[in-house]
């Protein structure tokens, strides 16, 4: 029998629940969604083209301007790729400080993603609570790096600033506060009956679908994909030792809960870093050489890859960035939204995969 | 009318008046870790242009000639407050929030040198680069028109029909050779490295 399509409903590019412009075209039969299609291209920056032919000092700043939410990890992956090309060693203290900055950024990103989801399911109170907690995290990022968003904290061979003992103590005190607040918010989310009605069993993606669609990050881990956290292969993280968070439900609730659980894990990692911070310099020697590499790191949303070619002058000749949302958005449209029970769930399902359009449209 | 009386009565209450006129909020304090715009410290600028060369933002900083010397000027509309100029300046001319203090305390700095490279495929051995180089001319005033020098101390000279770089470390990065080369065969690149220096050297 031929499928009948009642009406095609466009969501976006401007939508009150979405942080950035993207258009989602949903073909519906009554309330039921048969098919969804994502249309990108509303805020293309052309940043990869701008990076080409510039020295690393400039590309370092451009890299973290790819995305305003996970700017630290873009900085970190770019710098680590340059270090891999040039064979530069990082002092242990700098490596630990990098982890602290990266984890603070991850907490801020996860809280913003969960804020966005709560806002989409109209739980504005919890959303505002979460944003309030995020402020403390960003203040601590400023305490460490001197800036809230565009930090430029890492340089090839080390980091820019050291962490003073006084600042470390203040940061630990703030983290205890954040942890307590997040435990409260997690309990609200976990036990809320109305939240469960809007989240549990909605936007289901099976483990097979998640693997087939190449999803990464919390979206994949919520569907039960093991060993997809690239931090497990990062030497500093391996020293610190942690296990990745995985859930098996594969629905909106699981994706948000994975992010909530990862926040606690990040707080533990920061504590471990500060407690065992090695003494020594924060900068090693070495300058950027000519070469070519592809390096991947774990961004808050998943695997982030930088493919770079540099020349003798320390300039980036060619660069390609592959961000996690590329796969997650497609998987979201084809696996989660397809056969959604109601058009009302499309927005929250889309947001639950934490799409980052700024990362996507470099 | 009744509402006006109500409002008057409300606003003439001593508590309200006290709260309105004498309420004091704490003054907004800039945190010590805040990265501000670079400001001048009063140290003398030697016009080495390190700040301009490391600045990643276009048109954010310019070293201008004033009546008593040189002075860097920051254009806040273009500055991205990264603080690289503050870190790169060897004389401590600029200060930005805590960046200068932090670099002094941690003993961190940017160390830079110049890298010369001659493309043999493009080079036609005219020797313009060797003759025009101001450092070369100072070391060996007898440089002939061919660029062949008798001294081994020069930065570069024509040797065996090709330009050889002898002392790269003497280059000051003026790029005269690059501009004088008819084929753009010689390139000067500024290499930067973040280093940790001992307390004695700070």
From TrEMBL, chain A:
Residues 124-283, 289-362 form the NADH-quinone oxidoreductase subunit D domain. Signal peptide: none annotated. InterPro entries: ComplexI_49kDa-like, NADH_Q_OxRdtase_suD, Ni-dep_hyd_lsu. Keywords: Oxidoreductase. Transmembrane segments: none annotated. This is NADH-quinone oxidoreductase subunit D domain-containing protein.
From TrEMBL, chain B:
Keywords: 4Fe-4S, Iron, Iron-sulfur, Metal-binding. The keyword Iron applies. It comes from the Archaea. Signal peptide: none annotated. InterPro entries: 4Fe4S_Fe-S-bd, 4Fe4S_Fe_S_CS, Fe-S_Ferredoxin. Residues 44-57, 78-136, 167-187 form the 4Fe-4S ferredoxin-type domain. It holds the Pfam family Fer4_4. This is 4Fe-4S ferredoxin-type domain-containing protein. It comes from Methanoculleus chikugoensis.
């Amino acid at each position: 029998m031929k499928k009948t399509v009642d009406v095609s409903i466009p969501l976006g590019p401007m939508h009150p629940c979405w942080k950035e412009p993207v258009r989602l075209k949903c073909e519906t039969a009554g309330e039921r969604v048969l098919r969804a299609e994502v249309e990108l291209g509303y805020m293309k920056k052309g940043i990869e083209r701008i990076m080409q032919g510039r020295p690393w000092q400039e590309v370092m700043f451009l890299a973290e301007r790819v995305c305003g939410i996970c700017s630290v990890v873009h900085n970190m992956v770019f710098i680590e790729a340059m270090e891999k090309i040039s064979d530069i060693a990082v002092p242990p203290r700098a490596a630990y400080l990098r982890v602290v900055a990266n984890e603070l950024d991850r907490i801020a990103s996860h809280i913003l993603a969960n804020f966005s989801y709560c806002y989409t399911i109209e739980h504005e109170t919890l959303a505002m609570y979460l944003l309030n907690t995020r402020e403390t995290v960003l203040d601590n990022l400023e305490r460490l790096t001197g800036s809230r968003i565009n930090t430029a904290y890492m340089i090839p061979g080390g980091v820019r600033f050291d962490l003073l003992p006084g600042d470390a103590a203040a940061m630990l005190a703030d983290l205890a506060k954040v942890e307590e607040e997040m435990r409260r918010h997690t309990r609200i989310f976990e036990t809320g009956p109305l939240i469960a009605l809007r989240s549990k069993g909605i936007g289901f993606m099976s483990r097979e679908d998640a693997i087939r669609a190449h999803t990464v990050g919390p979206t994949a881990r919520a569907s039960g994909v093991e060993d997809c956290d690239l931090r497990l292969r990062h030497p500093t993280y391996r020293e610190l030792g942690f296990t990745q968070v995985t859930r098996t439900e594969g629905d909106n609730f699981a994706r948000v809960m994975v992010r909530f659980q990862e926040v606690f894990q990040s707080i533990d990692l920061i504590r471990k870093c500060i407690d065992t911070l090695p003494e020594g310099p924060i900068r090693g020697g070495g300058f950027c050489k000519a070469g070519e590499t592809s390096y991947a790191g774990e961004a808050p949303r998943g695997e982030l890859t930088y493919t770079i070619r540099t020349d003798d002058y320390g300039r980036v000749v060619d660069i390609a960035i592959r961000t996690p949302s590329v796969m997650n958005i497609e998987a979201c449209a084809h696996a989660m939204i397809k056969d959604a029970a109601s058009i009302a769930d499309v927005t929250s399902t889309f947001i639950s995969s934490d799409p980052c359009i700024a990362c996507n449209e470099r | 009318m009744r509402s006006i009386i109500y409002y008057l009565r409300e606003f003439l209450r001593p508590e309200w008046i006290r709260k309105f006129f004498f309420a004091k909020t704490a003054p907004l304090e800039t945190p010590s870790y805040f990265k501000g715009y670079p400001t001048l410290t009063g140290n003398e600028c030697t016009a080495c242009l390190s700040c301009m060369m490391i600045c990643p933002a276009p048109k954010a900083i310019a070293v201008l000639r004033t009546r008593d010397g040189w002075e860097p000027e920051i254009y806040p509309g273009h500055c991205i407050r990264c603080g690289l100029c503050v870190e790169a300046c060897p004389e401590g001319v600029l200060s930005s929030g805590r960046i200068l203090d932090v670099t002094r305390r941690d003993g961190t700095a940017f160390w830079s040198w110049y890298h010369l490279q001659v493309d043999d495929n493009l080079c036609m051995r005219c020797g313009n680069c060797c003759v025009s180089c101001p450092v070369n001319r100072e070391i060996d005033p007898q440089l002939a028109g061919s660029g062949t020098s008798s001294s081994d101390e020069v930065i570069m000279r024509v040797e065996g029909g090709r330009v050889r770089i002898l002392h790269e470390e003497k280059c000051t990065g003026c790029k005269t050779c690059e501009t004088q080369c008819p084929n753009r065969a010689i390139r000067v690149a500024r290499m930067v490295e973040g280093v940790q220096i001992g307390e004695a050297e700070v």
